[in-house]
Amino acid sequence: MASHIVGYPRMGPKRELKFALESFWDGKSSAEDLKKVAADLRSSIWKQMADAGIKHIPSNTFSYYDQVLDTTAMLGAVPPRYNWNGGEIGFDIYFSMARGNASVPAMEMTKWFDTNYHFIVPELGPDVKFSYASHKAVDEYKEAKALGVDTVPVLIGPVSYLLLSKPAKGVEKTFPLLSLLGKILPIYKEVVSELKAAGASWIQFDEPTLVMDLDSHKLQTFTDAYAELESSLSGLNVLIETYFADVPSEAYKTLTALKGVSAYGFDLVRGANTLDLIKGGFPKGKYLFAGVVDGRNIWANDLAASFGTLDSLEGIVGKDKLVVSTSCSLLHTAVDLVNETKLDKEIKSWLAFAAQKVVEVNALAKALAGHKDEAFFSSNAAAQASRKSSPRVTNEAVQKAAAALKGSDHRRATNVSTRLDAQQKNLNLPILPTTTIGSFPQTIELRREISKVVKLQEDLDIDVLVHGEPERNDMVEYFGEQLSGFAFTVNGWVQSYGSRCVKPPIIYGDVSRPKPMTVFWSSTAQSMTARPMKGMLTGPVTILNWSFVRNDQPRYETCYQIALAIKDEVEDLEKAGINVIQIDEAALREGLPLRKSEQAYYLEWAVHSFRITNCGVKDTTQVYLSPSFRRHCLAFCFIMVASIIIF
Asked: Catalyzes what (predicted)?
């Protein structure tokens, strides 16, 4: 029974690539130094997977910045402003596209589907002169082979690449990006030809856009693309990998009918409904790469449940055609649990980071082949049982309070005009008040800094002040550290973009607020001024979407629990004399499902969660919603009160 990993984190277990990149960008180390760190990381990843028994090991999933940018470099699709003169694209052009330089801005960055990873958006148009300008995919395949590891080279598929692109500046917004397919396929053919010549027997095309709502024209483009590539792919086993959601039925029909394709990969964690499509009909003689190990979260796999799923699939596709895989790239999870020496032992037993997920994949494959590791499965079952029964997971009072929320939409009791009149009488603000978004630069002397920040804002005649948040580390971590049901790692870093990494909290149990979290700081700051001081909170949806969330109950239930905790904080701030409260929901849209049919329900409970936080305050208390990301710098925003107040 074969095993497969869709992709693996690049940063290294202790963010080695991050530090190497930043050292290179700062001019403190050479390009060769950076390449050496990268080569060592790739080598250790390939060796780790080989030692774990993984058969289909990916290559070309490593990146110095972003895998979509790597594809842009491969295709030579460099925007003219970077003055590229042809030839192999090096660090200078590559990092200029990613980060900009002294004279031109970077390319746009946006979210990778519904993850917290961000990719560099290709800028395309009818005049782009595509050329084979980066041999990275072939070079890394050869590099692994020289180390004795035969890998599966991974490429962003041609159709998804175009669908993820945008018209370049000066190009009509209505320009049909898919019309460029015929211009990029010759380069894909060159890459495939070189990989075949180098000895590759498998190739993986990531086509994640197949999980989106695609019309018939877009689906036809997949058919056209792989029909055109068919002769070039002859002699190779070709895997089309999808992830992050169910594949719609029409897309499933298109996918499983593609020419030249021998294997299909599905996310069976977030796309469980795809199982019904597979059971309803799977192409005879084709491989099914079953993504049963979650690549998006940090919980240990329920091996018994996954084994049952795989066993049923084996009866459909055949024993020799079923491959155990991850649901998506492990890029979206932390690297290695071994480095978490301070994590509570019981909670640690419930977790699996990327390195542990590799072991889980192989253990499932061995079990299906009749070589079940009884001790490993037994230990896993004990951990699953421990998590289900642990008193630290369940808080009956919290569950009852959350359950009671379902009978109301939690709008504030009085109408908008009544509240606005009450707030104006209380606060006496001008027609166009000014405020800042929140954070100021931090120093060690907290209270002295708060006093300085307050005076600065008064000198600038700001109407509604902030205390600057000098006591906070991160807008989610700060609150999570003070809430029950959260755990934190030391090295649980996940790449957000480039060298930027985040360390998401782990929500393992029912969430509650043992004591006030921000009241001391806000009331201290209020005592320094006669002007209104704003209480500053992170909203429940943002805390949820920027955390690793428990998978044993619906996300909305966890969100409601967080909302109740923030509600308690809002009401304590009000009691302490804070009459203006800002609730940041920077990640409100980040949890939006990929499929339109699922979006209304998400928005319903997400907005409801926000309403819960402030439904109990007096008419005289003004609540601001800050929906945009706050950069930690001194940035003044002059905005109309009506545009940000939740009346």
From this structure: 5-methyltetrahydropteroyltri-L-glutamate + L-homocysteine = tetrahydropteroyltri-L-glutamate + L-methionine
Q: In terms of pLDDT, which residue wins out, 242 or 435?
A: 242
Q: What is the pLDDT of residues 555-608, one digit of tens each?
A: 999 999 999 999 999 999 999 999 999 999 999 988 999 999 999 999 999 999
- Average pLDDT of span 111-132: 97
Alpha carbon distance 295, 307 (integer Å): 17
Q: Which residues contact 629 (CB under 8 A, 6 or more apart)?
A: 586
How confident is the model at residue 105, as a pLDDT? 97
Q: Where are the beta strands (DSSP E) in 442-558?
A: 484-487, 494-497, 500-502, 506-512, 534-538, 548-549
Relative orientation angle of helices 374-389 and 303-317, to the nearest 10 degrees: 120
How many other C-beta atoms are found inside a 10 Å radius of the C-beta of residue 80? 14
More confident residue, 636 or 375: 375
Q: Binning pLDDT at 50, 70 and 90, where does residue 638 land?
A: very low
HSE of 45, CA atoms in CB hemisphere, 13 A = 29
Residue in 327, 372, 370 with CA at minimum distance from that of residue 352 = 327
Residues 248 and 528: their CA atoms lie apart, in Å, by: 58
More confident position, 551 or 624: 551
CB 595 within 8 A of CB 249: no
Q: Are 277 and 264 in contact (CB under 8 A)?
A: no
Give the count of beta carbons closer than 10 Å to the beta carbon of residue 254: 21
Extended beta strands in 353-449, E state: 435-436
Q: Which of 36-45, 53-62, 411-420 has the lowest mean pLDDT?
A: 411-420
Q: Using pLDDT thresholds of 50, 70 and 90, give the confidence band for residue 446.
A: low
Which three-class secondary structure string do you get for 264-325? EEEECCCCCCHHHHHHHCCCCCCEEEEEEECCCCCECCCHHHHHHHHHHHHHHHCHHHEEEE
* CA pair distance 449, 469, nearest whole angstrom: 10
Phi–psi pair at 414, nearest 5 degrees: -100, 170
Task: Choose among 638, 554, 546: nearest CA to 584.
Answer: 546
What one-letter code names the amino acid at 222?
A: F
Q: Please state, in angstroms and rounded to a whole number, the distance separating the CA atoms of residues 179 and 128.
A: 12
Model confidence band, residue 412 (pLDDT cutoffs 50, 70, 90):
confident
Cβ burial of 371 (10 Å; 0-12, 13-18, 19+) is exposed
Which among 298, 324, 326 is positioned nearest to 311, based on CA atoms?
A: 324
Dist. CA 149–CA 8, nearest whole Å: 16
Q: Residue 641 pLDDT more than 60? A: no
Specify the residue for token string 């024993």: 319
> What's the one-letter identity of residue 303?
L
Of 472, 542, 531, residue with least CA distance to 504: 542
| H or E segment to which residue 622 belongs | strand 622-626
Look at residues 315, 304, 302 and name the one whose alpha carbon lies nearest to residue 269.
302
Strands 622-626 and 580-584: parallel
Question: Is 299 in contact with 337 (CB distance < 8 Å)?
Answer: no
User: Which residues are within 8 A (CB) of 346 and not within 5 positions of it... i.e. 6 or more apart?
Assistant: 386, 390, 392
pLDDT at 470: 85
109 and 116 in contact (C-beta within 8 Å)? no
